[in-house]
Amino acid sequence: MPATSVAIIGAGPAGLSALRQLADSKRAIRVEVIDSNPRYGGQYWRHREGDPFPESDLDPTSHSSTDIRINWHLSTSVWQIENVAGSFRIHTASSSGEKSSTVEVEKIIIATGATERTLPFKNWTAPGVMSAGALQSLAKEYQVIPGKEIVIAGSGVFALPVAKTIKEVSSKLGADVNVTVIEAQSIFRWWRNSFAFLLNPSKILEAVGYLFFMKRHGVKRLSKRIVREVKVETGEIVGVMAVKVKSDLSSDTTGEMLAADLVATSFGFVPDMTLASILGLERKNHNDDAVVVVDSNQRTSLKGVWAAGEITGIGGHELAISEGAIAALDIVQKSSKSWKWRRFRQQLFARGLAKIYPIFGGWIESLDDSTILCRCEEVSVGEIKQSARELGADSARTAKLFTRAGMGLCQGRICQRNVKEIIDFVRKDSKNVSDANRETVRPIGGVVTLGGLSD
Ligand SMILES: Cc1cc2nc3c(=O)[nH]c(=O)nc-3n(C[C@H](O)[C@H](O)[C@H](O)COP(=O)(O)OP(=O)(O)OC[C@H]3O[C@@H](n4cnc5c(N)ncnc54)[C@H](O)[C@@H]3O)c2cc1C
């Protein structure tokens, strides 16, 4: 019998979990694993070159099955997928965009993960302001701590593992680093997730573990505050102004100045829908994000395509692992009952987290019109507002056409969500599904040179 061919796009927790199940199935399968990173592991597992893979269970080198053939395509980005008579032609390019090639498969599991969400504030384009994920990656992957007085500001649980990594790596390096976590929401909002905690008792231990760690290592925590401004003197960050978030989720205009030489921000994650939109998969709004619609087996609206991980809704690596396993088990027609129960518990927990950490209201009102919103093309908040008010922009896509916001190297991955909210704010439109579907369509989903195209 000819081998089934499956492409896994994205080798993070979801993709690697799918790979594990395919390998364990003892079926004759050819798997093409494609990831733009030079190493597998996704955003969650960022081990160093030569270090053992942190999760031995999902380490692809531990697969012993001889029935499965795994072709690895690392440092390789998918920029287009064609659906030709029931099979898929996946066009890829090397990271530099220069070398392109095509892979043909019958089935696809899309697990392209998420990008970080940041909110702008005064001077957020200064050197020394970065996303919490970038700080995490510098510390975890490269053992670099780029500051001595670090402020991690934003909303959501991600600040906790980042603060922990910074403290652990800096003590290993013998560096004296102070870390302050500024959280927009109150810790008391956790009661809203008490039911989900009961179904996920390990999460209680995890949360308590983080709080103990913070206390023991002198990590300062300020809640119900946001960073309004980064103070810069002679090109260097010297402090941040933290203001109080009020009970109606608006924020004060004045606050306290805290010492800082590096600021990392994190306001959650946004599903990376680039390839999902190229394939025209059905999407829906979920916690204000556009996500891929899947059935109970992670099948998408397109026959032969499954989706798993953050692109079906932000939920963390454990949920991504469950979803990847369910998708793969469906492909090999095996039962995934126990994974579905895990997924149910984890989804409940993720839903609770989304309720605990909404983006604080008033972030748009608090911004000066001169603040840069799209960093690649240097488009200001005022220009985005003007495109909605005077030129008729009604979505991030139309605002892009008027202002170039989202046309730069990151292709809107950083600013698009914020542009959309400013447009909605100016036009007072409600966020709806069609809008979410419209925002993310890019016919070419990655960097590819003309030379690469002609290969
Ligand atoms: C910057 C960042 C740092 C994070 N760090 C942590 C952390 O330390 N701890 C934590 O609990 N959670 C972290 N998260 C949250 C994380 O997204 C999830 O917990 C988990 O990694 C989700 O797994 P996933 O498989 O859905 O996606 P991911 O782990 O994001 O994996 C998706 C993979 O798809 C690849 N990909 C995307 N598009 C393409 C394409 N067109 N072609 C080829 N490959 C593609 C990416 O390179 C990536 O490796 C982080 C998220 C981000 C964005």
Would you mind describing this structure in some detail?
- The chain is an alpha/beta fold.
- It folds into three domains: 4-115 and 270-334, 3-Layer(bba) Sandwich (FAD/NAD(P)-binding domain); 118-267, FAD/NAD(P)-binding domain (3-Layer(bba) Sandwich), CATH 3.50.50.60; 372-433, BFD-like [2Fe-2S]-binding domain (Arc Repressor Mutant, subunit A), CATH 1.10.10.1100.
- 31% of the residues lie in helices and 26% in strands.
- The protein is built from 13 helices and 22 strands.
- A five-stranded parallel sheet has the order 3-2-1-7-20, covered by helices on one side. Strands 9-16-10-11-12 form a five-stranded parallel sheet. The protein has a three-stranded antiparallel sheet with strand order 4-5-6.
- Helix 1 (13-24) packs parallel to helix 7 (317-331), helix 2 packs parallel to helix 3 and helix 9 (381-389) packs across helix 11 (416-427).
- The longest helix has 20 residues, at 337-356.
- The protein starts with a strand and ends with a helix.
- The mean pLDDT is 89.
- Residues 9-15, 34-37, 42-44, 77-78, 111-116, 133, 136, 161, 269, 272, 275, 309-310, 316-317, 320, 445-446 line the site of flavin-adenine dinucleotide.
CATH class membership of the largest domain: Alpha Beta
Mean pLDDT: 89
CATH superfamily of the largest domain: FAD/NAD(P)-binding domain
- Corresponding CATH architecture of the largest domain: 3-Layer(bba) Sandwich
CATH names the topology of the largest domain as FAD/NAD(P)-binding domain
Strand order of the largest sheet: 3-2-1-7-20
List the ligand species: flavin-adenine dinucleotide
Amino- and carboxy-terminal Cα gap: 33 Å
Radius of gyration: 22 Å
Number of separate strands: 22
Unreliable spans are: none
Count of distinct structural domains: 3
